[in-house]
Amino acid sequence: MNESHTESRTGSCLCGQVRFSVSGDVKGVGRCLCSLCRKVSGANGNAVFLVPNEDFRWLAGESDTTKFSLPSGWSVLRCRKCGSPLPQSHDGKQMWVTAGLMDEDLGASVGLKIFVGSRADWDCDDPDLLEFEEMAVSKK
């Protein structure tokens, strides 16, 4: 482990079967808005960060994962039990970690967006949208 990395954060899938830790500072989160990330997440894209392999460690459940691949080579690793998207190798040197899997605050914010050209027409960054701390309650 790199000596400058003193902080460690844990992450897990929805059911908790698969757990991992990330050491060191998260430099920033990126949002991918491509059609593949929309399909794999069911949302407007994926919020992810990269971490060097030496700063990533599986804690439990690595054998409870399954990889889904497209003919193009694009793939996603998922928990076999709950289906959560899991960290996977990005380039052999770094792990691609979905930020929503983290159990603790990252101390980082979104620093960039990629594939904005294929952003869904319904996706927007409108500062005037209503926001709720919890689930919005319908008043009928």
Search tags:
Metal Binding Protein, Guanine Nucleotide Exchange Factor, Chain A; single chain; 11 strands; mainly beta; 140 residues; 5-stranded mixed β-sheet; 5% helix; globular
Would you kindly provide a written description of the structure presented here, covering whatever features stand out?
The protein is 5% helix and 36% strand. With 140 residues, it is mainly beta. It has one domain (8-118): Metal Binding Protein, Guanine Nucleotide Exchange Factor, Chain A. The strands form three sheets. It has a five-stranded mixed β-sheet with strand order 9-10-4-3-11. Strands 1-2-5 form a three-stranded antiparallel β-sheet, with no helix packed on it. The chain has a three-stranded antiparallel β-sheet with strand order 6-7-8, with no helix packed on it. The model is unreliable at 1-5 (pLDDT under 50).
CA(first)-CA(last) distance: 56 Å
CATH topology: Metal Binding Protein, Guanine Nucleotide Exchange Factor, Chain A
Secondary structure tally: strands: 11
CATH class division: Mainly Beta
Strand order of the largest sheet: 9-10-4-3-11
- Helical proportion, percent range: under 10%
Q: Which value, in Å, is the CA radius of gyration? A: 16 Å
What's the tally of helices? 1
Low-confidence stretches: 1-5
Integer count of domains: 1
**Estimated structural class:** mainly beta
The overall pLDDT average reads: 87
CATH architecture: Beta Complex
- Topology order in helix (H) and strand (E) letters: EEEHEEEEEEEE
Oligomer: single chain
How would the global form be characterised?
globular
